[in-house]
């Protein structure tokens, strides 16, 4: 496809072109686990074994790399598999910095590995550049992990400033951009070295695929180790799931724009509501990270809106009284979800006990606001 077309066109046409063998407009699903050698032992089709590569992966990975302005992308069996593969490139004694507010399963896994002596770990307040500088260990810190907007608190981190500080100390920056997607933010353009996605979420967008992805700014020694680790550990996506993910990404720009527009309206309604003690959304002008988010995000601020209602008991009541928002884990699907987050994360979570997280979908925004209003009224004060 022509290099001057918009990224939304690249996504809609899955990079363009039809299948050369059949003329099919829809990219084909290749389910084969193995590939035939030529008489001389070579692989003329460029594929050897599906744990290493598959034509269905190729198209999806190429599209994602193009959308992120990256050099290459790799698909994984889940977002956790993608994140863990990066972290497992650390040598014993290496140091990593991660944000205090981040995806709770990854945070807990990092803390467990660090406690076992696998590597050294510091958690710093999200976006606190002074705390980052104090935590850095030049020559030992290898990875600075960023998650922005953070799940579920919507905290914002300045990617460009973080990258400048980390690179000066010899560390690489990995940005979890699951919430933003390449539609709203491109971390590699801001100085990040790697971008991680839980592709289960908005990239796929239909809550029917478990997947992860990494995109790199350059094909360097770290990327070579990541590619090797994926193949050897077998943390790959199945061809059918990769095909579904590619299909979902073809409507990415439409879905992300609609959910972000809806989320903005929901956040503004919650900010006005007398029974809401705090509305947390980067698109609100009084959000502490609003100006940074406005600089590094384009076209919206993502689907997550969190809000507080004063007490844990009331949060439980509000979440249970919603009718259109499904009370379920995950985010980024076409349907809207709600979760009373702190009880899910358990003891030690930094999430306030009265915080409710919404994943805003593509339904009518007025219907979603009305559902929230009736739930808040039903819970009482």
Overview of the molecule:
- The protein is an alpha/beta fold and 381 residues long.
- It has 2 domains: 7-249, Type I PLP-dependent aspartate aminotransferase-like (Major domain) (Aspartate Aminotransferase, domain 2, 3-Layer(aba) Sandwich); 253-379, Aspartate Aminotransferase, domain 1 (Alpha-Beta Complex), CATH 3.90.1150.
- Helices cover 38% and strands 14% of the residues.
- It is built from 14 helices and 12 strands.
- The strands form 2 sheets. Strands 1-7-6-5-4-2-3 form a 7-stranded mixed beta sheet, with helices on both faces. The chain has a 5-stranded mixed beta sheet with strand order 8-9-12-11-10.
- β2, α4 (104-115) and β3 form a beta-alpha-beta unit.
User: Largest sheet, if any?
Assistant: 7 strands, mixed
Q: Which term fits the overall shape?
A: globular
Number of discrete domains: 2
CATH topology value of the largest domain = Aspartate Aminotransferase, domain 2
Q: Work out the strand percent.
A: 5-15%
- Gross CATH architecture of the largest domain: 3-Layer(aba) Sandwich
Short descriptors:
globular, 14 helices, alpha/beta, Aspartate Aminotransferase, domain 2, single chain, 2 domains, 381 residues, seven-stranded mixed sheet
Write a brief structural summary.
The protein is of the alpha/beta class and 381 residues long.
